[in-house]
Design brief:
Length: 250
C-alpha cells in the first residue's frame, strides 16, 4: 500500500522501514544542523524523536534554520520542530525537552531509551557529556563539529574524531576525549579553514542583539558570533541523518 515513505521503501525494503519506524532518535540542538537532521530522519520514517533545545527562533536564524520563518520568530525551536514533524508524519512520537543539556541535568535523560543520539549542540562541555553518557549506556552517537564561518559544503567528511584535521572544534574534542579515555567517536566535520567574519558592528549581534524576549542564551553572552549560510549547516545535518539511517537499518 502506498504511503509517504513508499519511495524510500523502494530502496531500503520493508524490513528496514519497520526498523526505522521502531527507532527512537534523540537530537540535541535544533538549529542550523540539528533541524535538518530531524527533517531527514522523520521524512525517512523514523518513528520517534526527542527534540532537545531551550532556544527560541530569532530573526537571524532565518538564513539557515529550516524551522525559522517570520511566522515562527519568538517561538521555542523544539516546539516549532515538533509541529513540523507532525505535519510530515502524524504518527511520529515526539518528545520535547525545552532545556539545554549540561552535566547538571544529564540525569533527566534516559539514554537507554534511545536507538541513537545526535549531538548538534555548540558547547564543548555539553558535547563531551553527551558522548560520555551515550557510551556509558552503549548507545550509538554521532557528533557535529564546526559548521560556522565556512562556505564550502563539499568539504564535509564522516570520520572518527581521531582522524580529523583542520577543524578547531574537532581539535579540542580530540584532546578532551583522549583525557577521558574515549577511544572513538563518529563525527561529521569539515577540512575547510574557517573564515574570519567581517567586523561590522552595524550587522553584528554583539551590539545589536535581537533575541526574542525570554531567550535563555542571548548572542551577547557568546564569546564569538560566527557567520553562516543556508547551504553549509544544512548539508552537515543531512550527512548526519544519512549516517544515522544507515546505521539503524544495517
Amino acid at each position: 500500500m502506498l504511503n509517504q515513505f513508499s519511495r524510500t521503501e523502494l530502496l531500503f525494503g520493508k524490513e528496514a522501514m519497520e526498523r526505522l519506524e521502531q527507532s527512537r532518535v534523540a537530537v540535541f540542538g535544533i538549529g542550523g544542523v540539528g533541524g535538518y537532521v530531524v527533517e531527514a530522519l522523520v521524512r525517512s520514517g523514523v518513528g520517534a524523536v526527542d527534540l532537545i533545545d531551550d532556544d527560541k527562533v530569532c530573526l537571524t536564524n532565518i538564513n539557515r534554520q529550516i524551522i525559522a520563518t517570520r511566522k515562527t520568530i519568538g517561538q521555542y525551536k523544539a516546539e516549532v520542530m515538533r509541529d513540523r514533524v507532525l505535519e510530515i508524519n502524524p504518527d511520529c512520537k515526539v518528545v520535547v525537552h525545552k532545556c539545554f543539556y549540561l552535566p547538571e541535568n544529564k540525569d533527566e535523560f534516559d539514554f537507554t531509551q534511545y536507538s541513537y543520539v545526535v549531538d548538534a549542540v555548540d558547547t564543548v562541555t555539553a558535547k563531551l557529556q553527551l558522548v560520555m553518557q551515550a557510551q556509558e549506556c552503549g548507545i550509538p552517537i554521532i557528533s557535529s563539529m564546526g559548521a560556522g564561518n565556512k562556505l564550502n559544503p563539499a568539504e564535509f567528511e564522516v570520520a572518527d574524531i581521531y582522524q580529523t584535521s583542520v577543524c578547531p572544534l574537532a581539535k579540542v574534542m580530540r584532546r578532551e576525549l583522549k583525557k577521558r579515555g574515549v577511544r572513538k567517536l563518529k563525527v561529521v566535520y569539515s577540512k575547510e579553514k574557517p573564515i574570519r567574519p567581517i567586523e561590522d558592528m552595524a550587522i553584528s549581534c554583539r551590539t545589536n542583539c535581537i533575541c526574542p524576549p525570554g531567550a535563555q542564551h542571548k548572542c551577547t553572552e557568546r564569546r564569538d558570533i560566527p557567520g553562516s549560510t543556508a547551504f553549509v549547516p544544512s548539508v552537515a545535518g543531512l550527512i548526519i541523518a544519512s549516517e544515522v539511517i544507515k546505521d539503524l537499518v544495517s
